[in-house]
């Protein structure tokens, strides 16, 4: 099986951000921040896609050396094999 | 002086399931009882979740990524044990009563949505187009386009000038149609194995490091007892459709199937 490449880690992080920052239910009520602010932050983070080196370095800092287990749940390579997280 | 405290909500579950839920990795998470519902929450400094604070931290990507990972880790832990509607990142309230009031406003809709998530995980599917020229593929499928290309090849320079734009435009349309058709075919092959399904616009105009371009994506809700069949179908689809690569990832909490129009919005907008 292939090892998870740095590029795959980046894609998995972007995928996580796509779900966590862009989705989820907005329960109305007296929420303290506006959804528009979160959406703007999300769009800003996504711009990092075009600079993968920067994104990878941020991910490494944020996980504090714990690896990418939290990011990659299940990724399959082109042959359909599970690619284990590092 | 102690900072003003608020309530950060990770997601919503059923009160009837809540007693058995263990959130081992995150002792700071607790449940707010709201009748038939519970919110999974944490006490935070409200100053961290004000509009101003978040705008200031918008450039602190390491902080945002760490927060997003923590948000996901909690939701994933609960999701493995019970149906849960993940809350939008950054959902912070001033008081527990604000949370209860918010849940009460949409209680029936939330309960109904939780029922549909029972025993299901979310899976993401992405369709990538392999690097390479699709001209020959679409020419083989479209006789009119093929005739036009032949006419162009045999034309004088002056006539070529006249035909070039038409041919390019027709070719572009044909390639777009092909991409749509082949990606829908790949995603629709998975559809019978899903409990819910939604197409989403592709996000990444940039090619992957392997030179592939995302042309379609979808989120799918899949029953756990059908997950292996779902994965197997994705593998078969990959082998049967040329020129594209179908990637699936999961299982995820039901982020894409949590959204709904609140009852208040429904009244406001009809």
List the helices and strands of chain B in order: EHEEHHEEHHEHHHEEHEH
The helix-and-strand class of chain A reads mainly alpha
Helix content of chain B: 40-55%
Low-confidence segments of chain A, ≥5 residues, pLDDT <50?
1-6, 49-80
Task: Name the biggest interface.
Answer: A-B, 52 and 67 residues
Structural class of chain B: alpha+beta
Computed CA radius of gyration of chain B, to the nearest angstrom: 25 Å
Q: Largest sheet of chain B at a glance?
A: 5 strands, antiparallel
The coarse overall form of chain A would be flat
Mean pLDDT of chain B: 87
Specify the number of helices of chain A: 3
Q: Tell me what portion of residues of chain B adopts beta-strand conformation.
A: 15-25%
N-to-C series of helices and strands of chain A: HHHEE
Sequence of strands across the biggest β-sheet of chain A: 1-2
**In percent, how much strand structure appears in the residues of chain A?**
under 5%
**Multimeric status of the protein:** heterodimer
Structural write-up:
The complex is a heterodimer of chains A (86) and B (270). Chain A is mainly α and 86 residues long. Chain A contains three helices and two strands, in the order αααββ. Chain A has helices spanning 6-20, 35-46, 52-63; strands at residues 75-76, 82-83. Chain A has a two-stranded antiparallel ribbon. In chain A, a hairpin with a 5-residue loop joins strand 1 and strand 2. In chain A, helix 1 crosses helix 3 (52-63). The N and C termini of chain A lie close together (12 Å). The model of chain B is unreliable at 265-270 (pLDDT under 50). Chain B contains ten helices and nine strands. In chain B, the strands form two sheets. In chain B, strands 1, 2, 3, 4 and 5 form a five-stranded antiparallel β-sheet that branches. Chain B has a four-stranded antiparallel β-sheet with strand order 7-8-6-9, with helices on one face. In chain B, helix 6 packs across helix 7 (143-154) and helix 7 (143-154) packs antiparallel against helix 8.
